[in-house]
Amino acid sequence: MKLTQRIVQWFSVIALAATSSAALAAPLPQDPINLDQLLQQLEQGKFSQSESNKQREQRFREKEQEQKAMLEDAIAQRNQLEQRAEQLETDFEQNEVDLGNLSDTLTQRMGSLKELFGVLQQVANDASGKFDNSVISAQYPGRSDALEELAENMSSSSKLASIEDIESVWFALQKEMTESGKVAEFTTEVTAANGDKAEQEVVRVGAFNLVSNGKYLERMSSTGSVAELVRQPSGRYLDTAENIQQTDSGIVTFGVDPTGGSILGLLVQAPSLGERIDQGGTVGYIILALGAIGLLFALERFVSLMLLGNKVKRQLKKDKPSQDNPLGRVMLIKDKYPQADTETLELKLSEGILREVPKITRNLTFIKIISVVAPLMGLLGTVTGMINTFQAITLFGTGDPKLMAGGISQALVTTVLGLVVAIPMTLLFATLHTRSKNLIHILQEQASGIIAERSERGE
């Protein structure tokens, strides 16, 4: 019924278009001069329009049978298409039923194989990710592509894995395990720390590390390229890297990273000794300067007291006093005042000993002051660092610990530097003070002996 209405509408549009074209084709009348001419033009136009309508009606009647035939053909074609649509719907429903039955049959027949294929897909995915991050892929690039494609095919379609696919996964895992126990050498493009690229001989230590030219390398999993670490570990690890490159066989000491680069990455991020000292800031450098000055004074006192001790020991073995040592100068006082009584000689000897004491104990007080001031300076740095930390918390909050790390580092490093300076200064002061007291004790002992000898003579 709808098709019939559309055909009638179509014929109406054709008739309207024919009328419009006929009206456009008629010649336009000239402009009327008076009312009579206008009336005459209207009558002529009405007559011509009537003749045109009659002609169109006659043509329409002549084609009426043709239009009816076209309508019948369209209705017949519509009926055929409706029957075809019903048949296709029936076939679709039957196909759905058959597909469901076949899926159930496939599930029943697969049984435990379905679980096997699920495990195979998971293993392929895991192995693909592991191979992307493995240093072995630097020597054998593109290993994960086949496994990744297999996992995608098994997940996106109902296609089952073949024996060859299962064997390929097994072979890839077996090769990874085999290569993990080898130290291999190969040539590949290496990106230096300054950005230059060059072909270099690279030594791969299992699945742990890559070294070249005595430096540790890393494999960028995103690009698959090999590059030098911007910061290398300490010298003892670099020495082992050189040894393993220069040795063809035998046992070689080498620093292995069992995590495949994670520990090495953290190791190179650790600050060096210079960087740790620099974290102490101005207070840290002042503490180190005080420590250096105190060490110089302690070294000077150690050498001086050692020389004085040797001279005093030699003087003890001699009977004749000498001017080149404190004991000799004290003993010369006895010869300088031979007729003095015991009390006067005792005072003169005490005076001579007091003159020698400042020379023996010189700079010891400054060393003691440094040993006391150094931890106080460390405490000052600690307070300053904590102030900086609280200022960072006030401005940025506690969301990012890195913003507080600078103040905390300064607080801890200055404390450590203060203790590092104070502890050896205290030990040095104690040692030097003991040596000086021993020398002074020898002078006092010898002076007491001289007084006792003079007193015996007087009696």
From TrEMBL:
A GO biological process held by the record: protein import
User: Where does the UniProt annotation place the signal sequence?
Assistant: 1-25
Name the InterPro entries on file. Answer: ExbB/TolQ_transport, MotA/TolQ/ExbB-rel, MotA_ExbB_proton_chnl
Keywords from UniProt, A to Z, are: Cell membrane, Coiled coil, Membrane, Protein transport, Signal, Transmembrane, Transmembrane helix, Transport
What sequence ranges are listed for the domain MotA/TolQ/ExbB proton channel?
338-444
Membrane-spanning intervals of the chain? 283-308, 365-387, 407-430
Coiled coil (UniProt feature): 61-98
Kindly give the membrane topology term recorded for this protein. Multi-pass membrane protein
Kindly list the places in or outside the cell where this protein is found, as annotated in its UniProt entry: Cell membrane; Membrane
Q: Name one GO cellular component term.
A: plasma membrane
Domain of life according to the entry: Bacteria
Q: Which Pfam families match?
A: MotA_ExbB (PF01618)
Q: Which family does it belong to?
A: Belongs to the exbB/tolQ family.
Xref: PANTHER family? MOTA_TOLQ_EXBB PROTON CHANNEL DOMAIN-CONTAINING PROTEIN (PTHR30625:SF11), PROTEIN TOLQ (PTHR30625)
The name under which this protein is listed is: Energy transducer TonB
This protein's species is Idiomarina zobellii
